[in-house]
Specification:
The complex is a heterotrimer of chains A (799), B (296) and C (202). Chain A is an alpha+beta fold and 799 residues long. Chain A has 19 helices and 34 strands. Among the domains of chain A are: 171 residues, 2-Layer Sandwich (Aldehyde Oxidoreductase, domain 4); 141 residues, 2-Layer Sandwich (Aldehyde Oxidoreductase, domain 4); 202 residues, 2-Layer Sandwich (Aldehyde Oxidoreductase, domain 4). In chain A, the strands form nine sheets. In chain A, strands 4-8-2-15-12-13-14 form a seven-stranded mixed β-sheet, sandwiched between helices. Chain C is α+β, with helices and mostly antiparallel strands and 202 residues long. In chain C, helix 4 crosses helix 7. The radius of gyration of chain C is 17 Å and the shape is globular. The chains are: A alpha+beta (799), B alpha+beta (296), C alpha+beta (202). The interface between A and C is large, with 88 and 80 residues. Chain C: It comes from Streptomyces beihaiensis.
């Protein structure tokens, strides 16, 4: 395979231990066998005797007053156990939301987007529930729809949310703006006067869907104490819990959540979907209730990536140094806030990209509109910015007549660079090196689709559809690099908790790791076991199911789990180790002087000295004692960005990846085949190299998708979603996905556990602009929007 | 909803006569999507899977009698020589799993302009054998499509087979989608060279309310080939002839803008596909067989 | 209505089936075989792929009534199916039975998944093992369908080219892996298969 790794010299980093299966090895997933045999229980696989099926009735219009809801006929349907509307909500808490609680559990008086939940049904069969839901009569009085910046910020615009009192309401320039974050550093206007070239551009980023394969689903089981047990697929159990319990009117300890198998997430499970609805129905009927969205509903059941308009201006001197950057990034947040404020912070603070620009004038904001709500998706605000600034970098380099890579390298940030927020980048930032590496990778052969027998259409644009045998096909190459923050930013208390237990079972030491970390496929469970083996020298590690019986692990997002929950597991293991050694000293200290004098390690199930001398078996140290420690762990704190200047040490860590895309475009038909998408990424330390490469390849492919095919299309006249299905929202198949050689660089970040760097998102950033650059290279077209479709490549966009 | 499971063709016809609203289901690749997504709740589902003859084909002297439920995979694997255009079209249908279930009868029954088989059937020329308890008849393919998702079937009729002329010359098929596999056609084009009648026939998919032929383009090309003596002299098609043929194929479209593509792109793409498929087929006729026929 | 068919070699009977139910629903919700997945229910993702009389199909698009009297192999029966094939046998020994994933089973998954270093017993088919070994499993939701499709391709084509693999798996969407490790897994299974074949002098 083409995957290569380069290890830098890690500073202050624990070296791997002698115990097999520790960090740095490509150990295999503990859930792998269950996943290949079909036994792994995903949230939609739950089943309970006597369970009911929940169904949600959703609005058929985007913006309307609800005149009336008549549920009588639905309730009278045989097999129906409950029909609930807003009026049935049990407490005064009727909204939820990640940061701003503006999202109604069920619509009240008004619907603000197409597909908003209006009523719930529980019945003994999904079809009974569907038929009953169809019998609920909702009378709407339609309102004009707000679908873009002009209609949202007009002085007389209808307010999507009237009477806002959230913590952003006071500083936004218009009530239909969720949050606005400017960043001012230096003086961009003055610096512009030094520029020999100035390049302006306007870019459009389409609405992308996470399109995780496992639909939103779960099972709520009412319990005898009046509480509820909820089995669900989510990214953050404790955040869900905080939003669910108040709506149900239950104390948090009576809402017991267990993570079910999660069929992918990518940000789309940060917000609640069916959680509260299933609990409400279960508590009302006294029966277990299962809800499973179908794919159509899933497109309405979670937030999407913000579509964006980006306006950029860069200047440079003729020797190739960037003088200044001005930009405005307008994100469409849709009807509810979701993660929009944090996405704004990211888009704004990362809008310059991985480059040194001292004089900047930046603003980013998110709109409230009647479009589908948008929030978290892999890359979180940094993706849209990267698409635009990388297009700008190519344009500036071209304007200067410089090599595009050399120009980027000349302006690349490095350790010590000051971000536009004033934050000093205090760990390796090998931007120039990543570009060098990705450029140095061997190019795929020309006309690889041709063999002795002629053209193999499967390897040409159009694939099996047999559209070309080489006619019109032109190759193009493009490069891009990006910067992503790791962890929750802007002063958020971004901690995690781990409970680690060591005991002797059947004469062997066994470690159990218990966290609330949502395993969504990323391989956190694999890594936790590796960390425990490394730290505690015990081969046998059990990963306890994630639930709310242990402290919060924070969200499985922002590339943070290996860093933060990994850090928490490492920390708890270290505390367990100290305790075990203390027991050893107490029991066995008199037998060997080294117990008192030497540095002691746990390796291979034994206590050993740093010189390698074995002092005791762990089994003999512990006997029937159990050591268990639950502890919170925090990375370095961050601070909020100043609301006027955007200054502040807002981010935890930065992550970098670079891509080279090689594409072949059928220039006559506007069809694209991505031939190869090579990536170089710095991962700090690869705790599990196999998983690291898998994450990079997966993130790269999601970037490819939004470059050439993925877009939720919303009708600008009605704000209704036009393609909520896998027939018309296309994600890449295996025939659309090229080989993805990966060059992994490991330059340790001394502030992070083992020197690691969060890696999940960075590859999603640079993939898209690299593909676009390659298509521009092949076609000579400007292409200022993504995804690019055949009509954009053939001049057949309607006027 | 009732599920009707006839064991024989006669039973199926009787069931359809008794319940004209019954929706036939064979491969299920259209009907089940509509049921799963709650777009359709037929009173009766009429399962045709148990009627084995529908999954059989017969190669005659002049024509192939293709059972309505012969899966696309079987067409690709077994009828490449006899029905090259349809074999190529079959290969573009959705995914291997869908090709294992779906057949031409479903495309014809649904009569969606996006059905992948239509352009190939139009270009090859064929008759659709339909039957009811009242009797059997054959509908020429040119008269089969009557409107958007409408066909010439009477409510009590079922599609039994398609009688397709065996290829007497090269046939080609292209389809544009915005993904390299598993994609519904943005538009599609089929072309068949018929040396025996010295004609070329075409079929266009997804670029008009129904699948259509580009008849003016065919007439133009047929005269140009005749006048230029191309059938005998084996010359390459001159670029100006190919271009005008392509333009006339574009002109035969009556497309709409939708989420899959713009009208203007569809017209453009049909022209490109017309020119390319004509070139490939004609090169093949001249003796330089193109590789794609081997891929189907 | 009542539907009788064979799943993983075992006769199954489902009662009170609504006529609009798919084979996928019956497998998952009535027969306790949720391994086949419900990602799109429109034939676009392949996660519900099963063998129907040996042929890979999307079980979401097979009406339950159409399965009457037929033989179905799901991911739950894949290991036995592959074993019987290797032994030249025909009848798979099913493991269906108890209905649904009980909460106890659901809670047990990760407790059971103690340590992949030591293996977990339980025999896997070569393609299943290759998916684990190659890192082709992330969230795993696409995995059952991919395994059934890939196993069937290797049955037909023991030495597939990369283009052959891509074509055969073009009906199975994966959102996590970018397909590279899936390609690795299928290549690995093919290589192991041909090693086994040559060592047995086949």
């Amino acid at each position: 395979m083409a995957d290569t790794r380069t290890t830098g010299v890690p500073a202050n980093v624990t070296q791997g231990s002698q115990t097999k299966g520790g960090i740095g090895e490509s150990t295999l997933r503990p859930d792998g066998t269950l996943k290949v045999t079909g036994e792994f229980a995903y949230s939609s696989d739950m089943w309970h005797e006597d369970m009911l099926w929940g169904q949600i009735l959703r609005s058929t219009v985007a913006h309307a007053e609800i005149v009336s809801i008549d549920t009588s006929e639905a309730l009278a349907t045989s097999g129906v156990y409950a029909v609930l509307t807003y009026d049935d909500l049990p407490t005064d808490v009727k909204n939820y939301g990640l940061e701003i609680q503006d999202t109604p559990v069920l619509a009240h008086g008004k619907v603000r987007h197409h597909g908003e939940p209006v009523a719930l049904v529980a019945a003994d069969h999904p079809e009974t529930a569907r038929r009953a839901a169809a019998k609920i009569k909702v009378e709407y009085r339609e309102l004009p729809v707000i679908t873009d910046e002009a209609s949202a910020t007009a002085p007389d615009a209808i307010l999507v949310h009237e009477g806002r009192d959230d913590h952003h309401a006071g500083h936004v320039p218009h009530p239909n703006i969720v949050h606005r974050q400017p960043i001012i550093r230096g003086n961009a206007d003055e610096a512009a006067e030094r520029a020999d070239v100035i390049v302006k551009g306007e870019y459009t980023f389409g609405m992308q869907d996470q399109a995780f394969l496992g639909p939103e689903s779960g099972l709520a089981v009412p319990s005898e104490d009046g509480g509820v047990d909820l089995y669900v697929a989510t990214q953050w159990l404790h955040s869900d819990l905080k939003q669910i319990a108040p709506v149900l009117g239950l104390p948090e300890e009576k809402v017991r959540m267990t993570l079910s198998g999660v069929g992918g997430a990518f940000g789309g499970r940060e917000d609640l979907s069916m959680q509260i609805h299933a609990c409400l129905l279960a508590l009302r009927t006294g029966k277990p209730v299962k809800i499973v969205y179908n794919r159509f509903e899933s497109f309405f059941g979670h937030v999407h990536r913000h579509p964006a308009k980006l306006y950029y201006e860069h200047g440079a001197t003729k020797d190739g140094k960037l003088t200044h950057m001005k930009c405005k990034i307008v994100l469409d947040g849709g009807a509810y806030a979701s993660a929009s404020p944090a996405v704004v912070g990211n888009a704004s603070s990362l809008s310059v990209g991985p480059y040194v620009v001292d004089d900047v004038d930046i603003e980013a904001y998110a709109l409230y509109t009647n479009n589908p709500p948008c929030g978290a998706m892999r890359g979180f605000g940094a993706v849209q910015a990267c698409f635009a600034y990388e297009a700008q970098m190519d344009k500036v380099a071209d304007e200067l007549g410089m090599d595009r890579i050399a120009f980027r390298q000349l302006n690349a940030m490095e350790q010590g660079t000051i971000m536009p927020t004033g934050q000093v980048v205090d760990s390796p930032a090998p931007v120039a090196e990543l570009l060098r590496r990705v450029k140095a990778m061997p190019m795929p052969p020309e006309r690889q689709w041709e063999d002795s027998e002629g053209a193999d259409v499967r390897q040409l644009p159009g694939g099996l559809s047999n559209t070309t045998h080489g006619e019109g096909v032109v190759r193009g190459v493009g490069y891009a690099v990006g910067i992503k923050n790791v962890g929750f930013s802007e002063g958020f208390d971004d901690y995690s908790t781990a409970k680690v237990r060591m005991e002797v079972i059947g004469g062997e030491p066994v470690v159990t790791v218990h966290t609330a970390m949502a395993e969504v496929g990323q391989g956190g469970v694999t890594v936790h076991a590796q960390i425990a083996r490394t730290e505690l020298g015990v081969g046998q590690v059990t990963i306890h199911p994630a639930d709310t019986q242990v402290g919060s692990a924070g969200s499985t997002s922002a590339s943070r789990q290996t860093y933060v929950t990994g850090g928490a597991v490492k920390n708890a293991c270290e505390l367990v180790r100290e305790k075990v050694l203390e027991i050893g000293r107490r029991k066995l200290g008199t037998y060997h002087p080294a117990w008192a004098t030497a540095e002691l390690l746990l390796e291979g199930g034994k206590v050993v000295t740093d010189g390698g001398e074995v002092l005791a078996d762990l089994a003999d140290v512990l006997e029937d004692e159990v050591v268990e420690i639950e502890e919170e762990w925090r990375h370095r704190p961050t601070v909020a960005f100043d609301l006027k200047t955007g200054q502040g040490d807002g981010h935890v860590q930065y992550s970098f990846a670079a891509h080279r895309a090689v594409v072949e475009v059928d220039t006559e038909l506007g069809l694209v085949k991505v031939v190869e998408l090579a990536c170089a990424q710095d991962v700090g330390k690869a705790l599990n190299p196999l998983s690291v490469v898998g994450q990079i390849q997966g993130g790269t492919t999601q970037g490819l998708g939004v470059a050439v095919m993925e877009e939720i299309i919303v009708d600008p006249k009605t704000a209704k979603v036009r393609n909520p299905s896998f027939t018309d929202y296309l994600i890449p198949t295996i025939l659309d996905t090229p080989t993805i050689p990966v060059d992994v660089l490991e330059l340790a970040d001394e502030h992070a556990p083992y020197g690691l760097r969060g890696i999940g998102e960075a590859p999603t950033l640079s993939s898209t602009p690299a593909v676009l650059a390659a298509i521009r290279n092949a076609t000579g077209l400007a292409l200022d929007r993504t995804p690019v479709r055949p009509e954009h490549l053939t001049g057949t966009v309607p006027a | 909803m009732d599920f009707l499971r006839p064991d024989s063709w006669e039973e199926a016809l009787a069931a359809k006569a008794e319940h004209p609203t019954a929706v036939p289901i064979a491969g299920g690749t259209d009907v089940m999507v509509e049921i799963n997504f709650d777009h359709r709740r037929p009173e009766y589902l009429l399962d045709l899977n148990r009627i084995t003859e529908l999954s059989e084909w017969e190669v005659g002297e002049k024509t192939v009698r293709l059972g309505a439920s012969v899966p696309y995979t079987k067409i690709m694997e077994n009828l490449r020589a006899e029905l090259p255009g349809l074999a190529l079209a079959s290969h573009t249908v959705a995914s291997p799993q869908i090709r294992n279930r779906g057949g031409v009868g479903g495309n014809l029954g649904t009569a969606s302009p996006a059905g992948d088989a239509h352009p190939a059937l139009l270009a090859a020329d064929c008759e659709v054998e339909v039957e009811s308890v009242r009797g059997s008849r054959r509908i020429p393919i040119d008269e089969f499509y009557t409107g958007v998702k409408r066909n010439a079937l009477a409510p009590d009729e079922l599609i039994r087979a398609v009688h397709i002329d065996k290829a007497d010359g090269p046939q080609q098929y292209s389809k544009v989608g915005t993904r390299n596999a598993m994609v519904i056609a943005v538009c599609a084009f089929g072309l068949a060279v018929h040396p025996e009648t010295r004609t070329v026939r075409t079929g266009i998919g997804s670029a008009a309310p129904t699948p259509v032929r580009a008849k003016e383009a065919e007439q133009f090309l047929n005269s140009a080939l005749e006048e230029g003596g191309f059938w005998d002299n084996g010359k390459i098609i001159t670029p100006s002839v190919a271009k005008q043929f392509a333009d006339l194929c574009s002109a035969a479209c009556n497309p709409i803008d939708d989420v899959r593509g713009t009208a203007s792109y569809r017209r453009h793409a049909v022209g490109v596909m017309a020119r390319r498929t004509l070139t490939w087929a004609w090169e093949s006729y001249r003796g330089n067989a193109a590789r794609t026929e081997g891929v189907a | 209505m009542r539907v009788n068919f064979t799943v993983n070699g075992r006769k199954q009977e489902a009662d009170d089936v609504w006529e609009g139910e798919s084979l996928l629903y019956v497998l998952r919700e009535r027969l306790g075989l949720p391994g086949s997945k419900n990602a799109c229910e429109q034939g676009e993702c392949g996660s519900c792929t099963v063998r129907l009389d040996g042929v890979p199909v999307c079980s979401c698009l097979v009406a339950a009534g159409q399965a009457e009297g037929r033989e179905v192999v799901t991911v739950e029966g894949l290991a036995d199916f592959a074993k019987n094939r290797a032994c030249g046998g025909h009848d798979g020994e099913g493991k269906g039975g108890a209905c649904g994933t009980t909460l106890q089973e659901a809670q047990g998954w990760s407790a059971k998944g103690t340590d992949s270093q030591t293996g977990e017993g339980g025999e896997l088919s070569p393609i299943q093992q290759a998916f684990i070994d190659a890192g082709a499993v992330q969230c795993g939701f696409c995995t059952p369908g991919l395994l059934v499709a890939a196993d069937e391709m290797l049955e037909r084509n023991a030495n597939p080219s990369d283009a052959d693999i891509r074509e055969a798996l073009s009906g199975n969407l994966c959102r996590c892996t970018g397909y590279e490790k899936i390609m690795d897994a299928v290549r690995l299974a093919a290589a192991r298969q041909s090693e086994t074949a040559s060592s047995q002098g086949v």
